[in-house]
Amino acid sequence: MYLIVWGILRDDRGRILLGRRSGARMADGLWNLPGGAAERDEDLTAAVSREVAEEVGIRVDPAAWTSLGVSQFDGTGAGGERVCGVSSFFMAQTWEGKPQPLEKTSEVGWFDPVALPPDCFSWLPRALQLHLMEGAKLTQQRGPMDEADGRRLCWTRLG
Question: How many other β-carbons are positioned within 10 Å of the β-carbon of residue 49?
């Protein structure tokens, strides 16, 4: 079971920062939010600050993150293996540094959350719609986690 944190950084135009994954175990070559697994005994806001710094070079004070919600996922990965856990989404509007591709990231870019690149992680548009734009605090995801178009992944809003 995975405990995943995702950092949503918004600029003054409302765009969000994405990184293209490179050398990653999952979704290699796709655009996604900076983030990853929380380490044992690590606070969630410290984990998202660490992941964002490692992947895109941005420093965020852990106290600057706002929780946007949580999504429980249970599905299958590219190799048919079961993938389950919890994703926590956080947003920050203040940070230090200039985005740059670092660990497991080949490029970075700012995107309108309703006009994401077609080669983004399949679940990302729906996650942003629910948690960022609609204010959902709790969701569930069921189905294949690697579908290119995301159509078979079923989302349920619970709160």
Answer: 25
CATH number at residue 78: 3.90.79.10
Tell me, yes or no, if the pTM score tops 0.85: yes
In 10 A of CB 40, how many CB atoms? Answer: 6
> What residues make up the domain containing 35?
2-157
In whole angstroms, give the CA distance from residue 96 to residue 15.
17
Determine how β-strand 66-76 pairs with β-strand 138-144: parallel
Mean pLDDT on 16-27: 91
User: How does pLDDT run across 35-51, given as a tens digit for each residue?
Assistant: 999 999 999 999 999 99
State the average pLDDT over residues 103-124: 95
- The residue among 29, 34, 57 whose CA lies nearest residue 117 is 29
Total domains in the chain come to 1
The pLDDT of 21-31, averaged and rounded, is 89
- Which DSSP helix (H) or strand (E) runs through 96? none
SS3 state at 24: coil
pLDDT at 149: 46
Residue type at 35 in one-letter notation: G
Cα–Cα–Cα angle for 58, 48, 46, rounded to 5 degrees: 100
